[in-house]
Amino acid sequence: MASRVPLIYGASAFGAKGTIATRIHDLAECQKSVDYFVGKGYGVFDTSRIYGDGTCEEYLGQLDLRGAAVDTKAWVANPGDHTPAKLRESIEASLKALAPHKIRVFFLHVPDRSVPYEETLRGVNELYKEGLFEEFGLSNYPAWEVAEMATLAKANGWVRPTVYQGLYNALERHVEAELFPCIRKHGMRFHGFSPLARGLLAGTSIASPAHGSRWDINSSPMAAGLRAKYQDYEAAFQQLSESLTRYKVTGAEAALRWLQHHSLLTAEDAILIGASSLHQLEVNVKACEGGPLPDEVVKLLEEAWTTYKGRAPPYFR
Fold first, then answer.
1. Domain contains 84
2. Within its chain, how far is the Cα of 204 from the centroid?
3. How many structural domains is the chain composed of?
4. Is 207 within the bounds of a domain?
5. Which of 199, 254, 280, 286 has its CA 20 to 30 A from that of 78?
6. CA dist., res. 30 & res. 14, Å (int)
7. Catalytic annotation, pick one of 9, 42, 51, 168
């Protein structure tokens, strides 16, 4: 049975050994995950120019995606990366790496506030008119900037953003208060990432993370920032996981089923799920295809969110 909310494979774990946060380095293993995911009836893979230092896109380009689509994103490494010229460089590099696959949704991964949004949107529109992607998306922008960009695009007759990719899970729900009303007003879908709160809802230990994971201070440049943001809350996540055992539900399963049946997501939206192995992918997909949670578990998650929300990080950058 397909999930109520469609799934997108977050492929950031694919890539060359020694690159940021990649976990699956063998193309044959990547292909197994692709075959399983597409075989289950899902048809979109998500990547970014930054993932695996560009090797994630290269891996996807070498895989048989069996007709599935690819979404990718333009990163901001330096101020000015969202000028029209730099955006062209980014998407052309992505298309070269992904070939023969095309780009479905082209996202601006994070804001580049050094460039006027009119200039950025004009550049995106030129790329769209050339047929380099099918849809335009935003990620990690606050609601007020989403509204500004959607309004500017409409007023100028440029391609409008139709998708927002953002942080959303059972214990990080800040998108609900202002972002969801904004994107719904502007006719945008929502793609939620980090459904397991960077793995914390699946029992990841910040103190002793798996080698090569995003939390590994020895291999991931993002580890220090993540630890600073989340380490004070690790005990709360662990306590929730322990409480869930009374209902014979794992933290990961509860988190994924909550998004499917108890969140604000609709069947027009999507949930990004990632995995560091085929087995983990199978477990996550199975959880997403499960039914609604027992009322007691939903109440437990609501109480956890009420306790945690004052300290939860913002959804935007």
1. yes
2. 18
3. 1
4. yes
5. 199
6. 7
7. 51
Residue 51 known to be catalytic: yes
Which CATH number is 302's domain given? 3.20.20.100
pTM: 0.95
Q: Which of these, 222, 218, 160, 219, lies nearest to 187 by C-alpha position?
A: 160
11 domain residue, yes or no: yes
269-278 pLDDT, tens digit each:
999 999 999 9
Q: By CB neighbour count within 10 A (0-12 exposed, 13-18 middle, 19+ buried), where does 188 fall?
A: buried
Residue 290 CB burial class (10 angstroms; 0-12, 13-18, ≥19): middle
